[in-house]
Design brief:
One of its GO terms (cellular component) is postsynaptic membrane. The protein is of the alpha/beta class and 159 residues long. The chain has 2 domains: 47 residues; 100 residues, Rossmann fold (3-Layer(aba) Sandwich). 44% of the residues lie in helices and 15% in strands. Strands 3-2-1-4 form a 4-stranded parallel sheet, with no helix packed on it.
Length: 159
């Protein structure tokens, strides 16, 4: 009714034409509201699910375990400290969660050196995605502030 058709149906009354005009504007408004949400869902779903494509001659390390903003910041500060000289290593964080906005902003700040992948080191597919077999190192970050150190150690040993 609101599309350009073959002309076999035409509105003759003013009320009918007014209804179609309002119907078109409401439809366009609803469509305009839903498009950004759908795009956001599609982008977020694929954002952390990709695979690492390494550059030949460049090393990468995989960091997993207790990844938080403070632990990731401390790791990067220590890993890229000036005493180590120029470090040309790609850091891949692998976590079985979606990063919150603060952690995502941290990863974006370091986007040339850091990439986050959603997954688990217990899954073969995820280890292949981050090219674990070609990594220069696999580092496991522990929760230093845990109340149950034995449980944390057991979880890290499984990783």
């Amino acid at each position: 009714m609101s599309t350009v058709g073959y002309g076999d149906v035409e509105l003759r009354t003013t009320l009918g034409r007014l209804f179609v005009i309002i119907f078109i504007f409401i439809g366009l408004g609803l469509f305009a509201n839903f498009v950004p949400e759908v795009v956001h869902i599609i982008i977020n779903r694929k954002r952390f699910d990709g695979s690492f494509t390494g550059v030949s001659g460049k090393t990468h390390v995989v960091v997993c375990g207790h990844i938080t903003l403070s632990s990731a910041s401390a790791f990067m500060k220590d890993f890229l400290h000036e005493d180590r000289g120029e470090v040309d290593v790609k850091v891949l964080f692998l976590g079985n969660f979606r990063p919150n906005q603060e952690l995502e902003a941290f990863f974006l700040r370091w986007f040339l050196k850091v990439t986050f992948y959603q997954g688990s080191v217990m899954q073969r597919r995820d280890m292949e995605r981050v090219k674990m077999h070609k990594a220069g190192a696999c580092l496991i970050i522990c929760d230093r502030f845990t109340s149950d150190q034995h449980k944390e150690d057991a979880a890290n040993l499984m990783r």
